[in-house]
Amino acid sequence: MGRRAQRKRSAAASDAIAARRSARDRERLARLAEGGTPERPITIESASQVEVVAESMRCPLCDGGLRVLAHEAQVVDGARRRAARVVCRACGSTRAIWFALAGVSLH
Ligand SMILES: [Zn+2]
Question: What residues are paired with 97 via a beta bridge?
Fold first, then answer.
């Protein structure tokens, strides 16, 4: 019984490590995707689309639905951006989704 319990524990521990590693990979991929950083914004026609588009996206960690907590106008390195602060309804992870308004000059 002793050995079996030990093996079970270590299998659970390595599962937890694998889950953490995969969450980190998904997080990295999400940052490379459109909207993941201010440098790779999603282009929209009007600021009113920020909430709509952000809430239509899925959590990159668990594919859950997102809820917009805040919508901010920001200037990042001289470029005007909109950021939607979102939280996953399923796993509770938070992130920012970045937008640029079409037709707004970057210069
Ligand atoms: Zn999630």
Answer: 84
Q: What is the mean pLDDT of the chain?
A: 89
Ligand 1: centre distance to CA 86 (Å): 10
- Tell me the CA–centroid distance for residue 87 and ligand 1, in Å: 8
Chosen CATH of 33-101 out of 2.60.120, 2.40.10, 3.30.60, 2.60.40? 2.40.10
The pTM (predicted TM-score) of the whole model is 0.76
Dihedral sign computed on CA atoms, order 36, 38, 42, 46 = positive
Residues with CB under 5 A from ligand 1 (ion): 59, 61-62, 64, 88, 90-91
- Using an 8 Å Cβ cutoff, are 85 and 66 in contact? no
Distance CA 15, CA 7 (A): 12
Residue with tokens 């599962």: 15
